[in-house]
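Q: What would this complex look like in 3D?
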Amino acid sequence: MATGTRTQREGTSVAVAERSRPTARETWDVVVWNDPVTPMKVVVVIFKRIFGYANNRCTQLMLTVHHEGRAVVWTGARERAESYTAKLQAAGLRATVERSGE
Amino acid sequence: MSGRLFQRRRDGRVEVRLNEIGRAVVRDAAERIVRAERGEDGWSSSLRLPIVPERDDDDPLRILERDAAVTTQAELVRVTVDEALLSADEAWAWLVTLQVALRATADETGLVGDDEWGRAEAGVRERVEGLQMLLWSLADCL
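A: Here is my prediction, written as structure tokens for the whole assembly.
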């Protein structure tokens, strides 16, 4: 009985740990939104400066924003996503953070 | 404002070729942003967009990070607005300050899409196109 109880408790704690693990690894997207006035060239320069991406990638992301209305420009841990978004907003772009997959 | 408004030099600095009208546009943009950060200008709401819209409140550290960057850049523009040559960091401050001003102007005048752009008053169009012209030329140098 005692052994059984111990096993049951251990099993419960393992189950709790496994349930919380995906939350800890949850990723967040930095989303940039289209607006009708920002020159395309400016968006490319800002992406290059903030993320250090190559020209081609910056241009591709800018075109996605332009044609689809939004683009996920970075995915990762929440704190870094928020920090990148603060930098993008300070550079004058319309950017937000959302959970990946939303 | 005609020809190249900014020119990148071989030493990496950016030459400012604006006349007094062009510099006045840049000065006005920087001053309005500084005032807006203090809550004294209609651009304030445009400068304070949510970072994580699904949450009720954003992390105060992120808000501070953003607001401090906006103000620092605008202050740097104010003190360099009469310069003939800009360092790369100063040119970056000019670019983002003008971009913040452009977006705030669009928000303030309701330019949220192509339809609104088509209906915009001539004065608003002129202001927006002036800022865009400065941004195009400056982005070429960065």
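A: To summarize the key features: The longest strand of chain A covers residues 70-76. Residues 1-22 of chain A have pLDDT under 50 and may be disordered.
Q: Very helpful, thank you.
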